[in-house]
Model the fold of this input.
Amino acid sequence: MDKSNQELNKKNIILIGFMAAGKSSVGRILARQLGWSFVDTDKEIEQVTGLRIAELFRKHGELRFRSEENLVVKKLVGRTQTVVATGGGTVLAEENWQILHELGTLIHLYVPLHVALSRVKRRQDRPLLLKKDIEIEQLWHERLKIYNQADIIIDTTDKDLATIAAEILTIWKGGQLTNAPDN
Done:
C-alpha cells in the first residue's frame, strides 16, 4: 500500500474481507478501544428484516439481501467515529465501495482460504454453506482482487483478535502500512 497516513480517511474504520475473517469480532474490539460506535451490516439487515441472514437468503434470495445491504450502507452516510464490519460481499457493489471509501479507511482483514473454510464449516448461519468448497474457493479468489484495493491490508493468519486489533490501531494511527499477503 502506498498511501501515507495523512491520506487515510480517519472519520471511520471500515472492515472488509471474506466471510469468517473476524470482521465483527475485531470491529467490536476496535470500537471499544476507541470509544466509538460499532455497526455490523449483517446485524443491521437482520434487525430491519426480522430474519437471520441465512433465512433471508433462503426465503427471498441474494438479490433481496443485496438490496437490503445497500440500504444499510446508505444509512451510514454522515456517521463519524464508527467502526463498521461489512458482510463479505458488501464491497462487490461499486456503489457500496464508493460510499464506504468516502466514509472512512477501508481495512481488508485477509484470511487464507483454508482458514476461512474451516471457520465457516463450524457455523450454521452462513448462506455460502450451501455452496461446494470449489465454489467458495472461486468466490474467495474473485473477491480477493477487490478486497486488496483497500487502504490497509492486515494479514490475520495465526493472530488472535486482540493482536489484529492492536495492529490495525498502530497502522491506522500512524504506523507503517502493510503489504498484501502472498496468496
